Amino acid sequence: MDEVEQQLSKQQIEEFREAFSLFDKDGDGTITSKELGTVMRSLGQSPTEEELQEMVKEVDADGSGAIDFQEFLTLLARQMREASGADEEELREAFRVFDQDQNGFISRDELRHVLQNLGERLSDEELAEMLREADVDGDGQINYTEFAKVMLAKCLLN
To answer: Which residues fall in a coiled-coil region (predicted)?
Structure first.
């Protein structure tokens, strides 16, 4: 697994693979800048043609003028970092709000408490699903790295 894939959850990679496949019209494993625009718009972005060409150029490691899936992941990871607008300190502060006992993890109860304070009323099933999606290592709680991935992904998709 390369560095980019380590920044993304398995679910994110699968969602990105599905989006990539949808727009790889000829099935050759690459997408052009035009196809990339369709993908980016489907993920809630609105790049100009110039921005699309620049994006392809930035990650097109083999100089083919199109991007393969690995280059696509690199592009999306970069977009997530840039789109987040949240610097490390803002993310850490948000994590501290959720991590009420300051033990370095967000428990199910802490997640429920903060979401209720924000006016979110979730069923036990919805809360369990939210925890499952974020809890990459499966230990039943969310550490900072897992929290940061979820927050960055939300920034990309919003």
So the answer is: none
pTM: 0.47
Query: Average per-residue pLDDT in the chain?
Result: 82
Kindly report, residue by residue over 82-93, the tens digit of the pLDDT: 655 556 777 788
| Residue 31, C-beta contacts closer than 8 angstroms, at least 6 positions apart | 20, 23, 24, 39, 66, 67, 72
Read off the DSSP letter of residue 26.
Answer: T
The separation between the first and the last C-alpha atoms of the chain, rounded to the nearest angstrom, is 27
CA-closest candidate to residue 111, choices 24, 20, 103, 100: 100
Residue at token pair 């840039």: 82
d(CA 79, CA 142): 24
**Region for 143 from its dihedrals, namely left if φ exceeds 0, alpha if ψ lies in -120 to 50, beta otherwise:** beta
Mean pLDDT computed over 138-156 = 80
